[in-house]
Amino acid sequence: MMQTASRPLPPHLAAWFVELSASAEQSESILGDLAEEFSDVASKSGVVSARRWYWRQSVKTIFHLAGAALRSAPWPLTGIVLMGFVLKWFIARLPEQVIVALLRTQRPYSNLHYVLYVWLVTWGIPILRVVQMTLIGCIVAAVANGKEIVATVVLIVISSVIVGSNFCLHVLDLPLQTKIPWAFLVPNFANWMGILTGGILVRQIRSASPHQDATP
Asked: In the chain, fewer beta carbons within 10 Å around the N or the C end?
């Protein structure tokens, strides 16, 4: 008996990105339309071409959804993003304060704990800061009901512009032949990923909830 060829499936990652960017009401219809057109392209031009087409359409769809969300509620989103910046500023030094308070409980310092002290200062503070940024992303996404990813991405974009501008000004002030401190950008990138992770977590929890509130 001859087996029929399995139907090609769209790229799961691209479909997931679209699902995150769309509201619960939009995602089903959008993904259904994209999947149908993907099958048509695959039957005419092959699976490889169809996958490339699907990624292109997914990116266009994501930008379209983000622009529509910004146009539909610019001021509420502005307020939510501003709230995120206030939270970042208000608890900016919390990781350092937690680590310092923890170290002070171990006085007098001993050589036996020296490695732990160094690890806490070197890695503990950045790890706590990423956790902090993830919580901020969760808060921002929770307030931006239906626009979780848009709000967190806007917060990341504005933060990256500010950090990038400061980095460029710092580099311009460096003497010639001085190594550019690219490592400075690594913790900031980790913080941005923490904010995005918070937004994704809230979006996924709401998508899985059978009693999800309607998008305003």
From this structure: N
